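[Solved] Which block belongs to which protein?

Original post:
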Amino acid sequence: MVNTYALKKTLRSLATPYFILNIIASLLHPISRFTPGLCEMIGDSCNLDFYEIEIYFFVICVVAIKNRRCVSVEAYLSTFFLFAKAGAAILFYKMNIQLSIWYIVLCIVLMVTVRTPSFEESAEMKYFVDDTLPQQLKNDTDTIWVVEFYTTFSPHCNAVKPIFGALSREFTHEYMKFGKCDVLKSHGVPESYGISSSCLKTELPAIIIFEDGKPAARVKQTNNGKQYLMSYANLKRDLLMQEFYNKAVEKAKKIKPENKKKK
């Protein structure tokens, strides 16, 4: 059964200048080769030669390999844009060096002027550095905290951004909040919760749910040598998001009457 809400959300995210213009730029070479009139102007014929077919298949294979554990359409397309434009630059160079130069300039202009769309997340998302996370958990034991441990340069962490953002929008509550901890700015904090920040172990991103200030559920990118697919459905199921959200709702019902009695 198709999740219409998720489909609509994905289509809305794709209907932005970044994706529309980059799709056109990535497909500019096949468009120029198969458009009657245009293909004769820039090439000898409108048929692909063996070298061009080889490059096309190479790009398809590389994109398929790089995206074999991709968790979102947006991340998949970003990888496709990179290799498709690299392949197109090579093919334009084979046709005409001036075309290749103009194409590279176009790609640079797109990269500089068209910003990558920011991934929406809860307005209450909190970012932790240094030892602020342990202090927050110590001072706020009533709140259930969902914390992602990440690094800015990790492709896995960047791929999970829209997923974690969607979870934060859906499950943020007065007593269930979301946060992010940059491991490079919080030395020793990830290790205190059993998470290695070493790039060799590739455990990042890691997500931990804290209840009463203590870890109650967790997932990591790699655990005992096995990779975990951080899709929206997997995280929601394996982190028991709905169960913790229900606990937060029940806690709010209990705490509010108690506060009224004190007054």
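(Second protein starts here: sequence line, then its structure tokens.)
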Amino acid sequence: TDVMLRSHFGEESMTKGVLPALNFLMQANRLNSMQLDSGGILFTLVEEKVAAKMQGLSPEMMMVYHEIERAGNNGISSGDLKKKTNIQQNTVTKATKELDRRSLIKRVKSIHQKTQKIWMLMDLMPSANITGGPWYTDNDFDHEFVNEICKIAESQIKDDWEKNGVPTSLQSVERRVGSSGVSQEALTIEHIKQIVNRLIFDCKVEEVAVVHGTRFTDPGPYYRSAAQGISHYDSFTSLPCGVCPVFDQCQPGGVISPEACVYMEQWWEVEEEGAAEEMGTDSAHDIEDLIS
């Protein structure tokens, strides 16, 4: 920043040497400047090969370039470029065409604005907000891929519960999907949670409360296969009693009792938080609606 430069070089050197150098670099397109909210100026160095491509660009084209640069990996539409630069649309179109020809910017497709031109710098990768993330291929929702991930998650949760009598953690599902090799892109824990949420809404699995310790070491949440014959979400399906390690010792009025049960208290808090969203949702929701 200009403040850092003044602090390093001093006021006299800043005026006599640094400012002329900054102006020279900016005229050679080797330096960008941006006004900060604090009132200072931030300078960023431009790569030599990029600066060479900028030679001969008009002021209007440079304005368009800098607006596209500010948009980052979310990109910016031609219409928004016109609004932000206050330049006529035909001038904006001419500028983007020339910047594209020089390989300074590129056009990307957006799942939200399929008919609009979205521009971003050539070396940036579009954000998930633009591409839709791993669930989209060429801007189209990939139902086959999503269904394959769902099968892996459902199979693991079902096997763990029905064969071994233990619930499955979200982290365990993440590890299983990661080791399956189905996805060419690394899926985050949030991606896996979206998949499991789809299974919950389809009444194939349900979340359960567990007591963390030697048996349940992952942070969770934990899931089990849904009871057979249930065609809608029911709060009773997630009661912690089914996986309680001291269930046999629990009785009303006892040392371990329903009225003093910490597991029930945790379950009730989870139910209160999720009831409004989950109980009123159609079980046949398509995952595209759930994760969009």
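Accepted answer:
You had them paired correctly. Confirming on the second one: The beta strands are 31-35, 41-45, 76-77, 105-108, 118-121, 136-137, 140-141, 168-169, 205-208, 222-225.
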